[in-house]
Amino acid sequence: MGKDISRRTFLKTAVGTGIGLYGLSYLRTSHRAQKPLKKFKESGLKKGTVVAHCSNNVGDRDEADIIRDMTTRALTALGGMQKLVSRGDRVVIKPNISWNRAPEFAANTNPYLVAALVNLCLDAGASRVRVMDHTCSNNPKPSYQISGIEEAARRSGAEIAYVDGSRFREIPIPGGKVLKSWAFNDAFVLKDEVDVLINVPIAKHHSTSHLTMALKNTFGMVGWDRGRLHKDIHPKIADLNRVVKVDLTVLDAYRTLRHHGPTGGRLDDVDNSAEGARRIIVSTDPVAVDSYGATLFGLRGEDVGFIKEALEAGIGEIDYKLRGFEEIIV
């Protein structure tokens, strides 16, 4: 298994050594010409929140089949992927692939969930589905491979991409409470790069932000010294989400990491019970998703700083039942 390192250590190492894709190119973004930014994709999806909840009565079904069923039923209840993805659309799926951990450690998004979403997007007519994340390792390949996401996504027909360090650009953050601008990767934010952006985080404990779910997952879309984002982290998470236009959020809570996040590494810290996990949450509102996700950790959305900040920034609704709520037992 590759060696895990913190985001702060990683970025310091990158700047110091000028390594490959993750070198000093972060620092040159402010001189690049601006291009039109992606806007929200107009869709026929419902505005509520849907939770697919796996019971203990699954018989001898394997995990891939269960998660595929949960994902399909949740998206169908929201209106169906065809209400979001149009024929010819370029889709980017952004899981959490931060760490060199196997799926059972719940440090990265479940690969079967990523595969299910790739299939749904292609079935809806997408011309390209790209799966990518800005990982926390010097070399992204081990995280992509050990997580199982690269193999699962590729087998489903996705294009696997690593974040290109030369393609970050400084983007102003209108109304930013703390951040007035930051470096974002072109693949996630430019109109000529992506038509549909799907954020697919995993629900887990985080040592700095307390939890990491949908809103925090945007850290994998940005550059510069991400270690700096961890000071006053809660308003900064909200500020980044003022720029990123996520069309659909799918929260992986099939397993949840209860302690020692975000890296994990101990199976004792993972919950795979029907009471505290075994869920997939879908919505067009990342604030509602995170607010529901907080309940899996015994919290309300109001108890989590970045969720409150995102509400105040107008990014979404903290009441996940406000625009409709449905729970499906699988």
Task: Tell me what you see in this structure.
The protein has 330 residues and is α/β, with parallel strands linked by helices. The chain has one domain (7-30, 43-329): Rossmann fold (3-Layer(aba) Sandwich). 25% of the residues lie in helices and 19% in strands. The chain has 9 helices and 13 strands. The protein has helices spanning 7-17, 63-78, 111-123, 140-146, 149-155, 186-189, 233-240, 286-295, 305-312; strands spanning 49-53, 90-95, 128-131, 159-160, 168-172, 181-185, 196-200, 202-206, 210-212, 248-257, 270-271, 279-283, 325-329. Strands 1, 2, 3, 4, 7, 8, 9, 10, 11, 12 and 13 form an 11-stranded mixed β-sheet that branches. A two-stranded antiparallel sheet has the order 5-6. Helix 2 (63-78) packs across helix 3 (111-123) and helix 7 (233-240) packs across helix 9. The longest helix has 16 residues, at 63-78. The radius of gyration is 18 Å and the shape is globular. 53% of the residues are buried.
Any key phrases for this structure?
disordered N terminus; 11-stranded mixed β-sheet; globular; alpha/beta; two-stranded antiparallel ribbon; about 325 residues; Rossmann fold
Summarize the structure.
The protein is α/β, with parallel strands linked by helices and 330 residues long. It contains 9 helices and 13 strands. The strands form 2 sheets. Strands 1, 2, 3, 4, 7, 8, 9, 10, 11, 12 and 13 form an 11-stranded mixed beta sheet that branches.
Mean pLDDT: 91
CA(first)-CA(last) distance: 34 Å
Poorly predicted regions are 1-31
| CATH 4th-level superfamily | LarA, N-terminal domain
Strand content: 15-25%
CATH architecture label name: 3-Layer(aba) Sandwich
- Biggest sheet overview: 11 strands, mixed
Residue share in helix: 25-40%
Query: Number of helical runs?
Result: 9
User: What name is given to the CATH topology?
Assistant: Rossmann fold
Give the SSE string: HEHEHEHHEEEHEEEHEEEHHE
Indicate how many domains the architecture comprises.
Answer: 1
CATH class: Alpha Beta
Shape: globular
Structural class based on helices, strands and sheet pairing: alpha/beta
- Quaternary organisation of the protein chains: single chain
Total number of beta strands: 13
Cα radius of gyration in angstroms? 18 Å
